[in-house]
Design brief:
206 residues; alpha/beta; Rossmann fold; seven-stranded mixed β-sheet; 6 helices; 7 strands; binds 5-O-phosphono-beta-D-ribofuranosylamine
């Protein structure tokens, strides 16, 4: 028996990747998975609005509201336990996941990055900066990567990638749009792989 995925989604912004995964679940394209809660550090994030519109608990949890980082982590963990979460999706989450959560959810936190890791990843490589760097480097391809989140930024085991061609006249903006369209296919596909047991969670890290 494959344990159902009880998912928490962490995000800071518009939430289009969350929307793509949620639609896939709602349309039956991802069996055995349920979004239990959406967490954001940003009270006005679109991702929280999407959750609310779909009757999914939406939690604004910002480190700034806690006296210590430990108190913040404790509250985050308590929230995950409250919703019986066993899998975490980062979808445009702009904060570091506390190391205690990474170790409690070892191999059970995934992220989507808008480039072909290990290229164009790491600290400071987010949003338009990624696409600007790809265009400046005159790469022939970019794409999206879904990877396991570990203690090193953008360095966890790669689960799946999808490529897109960079046209000679692409700007960072036009490339961002192409990559985002690919992300919306890739993230639901990656979640489906976990949900159906296509990724052995205990054996992800070699
Ligand atoms: C995506 O490009 C994702 O790759 C990156 O942050 C962006 C989030 O966009 N990690 P959205 O909030 O899912 O629309």
């Amino acid at each position: 028996m494959i344990r159902p995925l009880n998912i928490a989604v962490f995000g800071s912004g518009r939430g289009s990747n969350f929307q793509a995964v949620l639609s896939a679940i709602q349309q039956g394209r991802i069996p055995n998975a349920d979004v239990r809660v959406v967490v954001s550090n940003n009270s006005s994030a679109g991702i929280l609005a999407i959750a609310r519109a779909n009757g999914i608990p939406a939690e604004h949890i910002s480190e700034k509201k806690f006296p210590t980082p430990e108190a913040f982590t404790e509250h985050l963990l308590a929230t995950l336990r409250l919703y019986d979460v066993n899998f975490i999706l980062l979808a445009g989450y702009m904060k570091r996941v506390p190391v205690r959560i990474i170790s409690e959810y070892r191999n059970r936190i995934i992220n989507i990055h808008p480039a072909l890791l290990p290229k164009f990843g790491g600290q400071g490589m987010y949003g338009m900066r990624v696409h600007e760097a790809v265009v400046a480097a005159r790469e022939h391809f970019s794409g999206a990567t879904v990877h396991i989140v570990d203690e090193e930024y953008d360095r966890g085991k790669i689960i799946v990638q999808k490529k897109v061609a960079v046209a000679p006249d692409d700007t960072a903006e036009s490339l961002a749009a192409k990559v985002l369209a690919i992300e919306h296919e890739l993230y639901p596909e990656a979640v489906r792989m976990f949900a159906v047991g296509g990724v052995l969670l205990d054996e992800v890290v070699e």
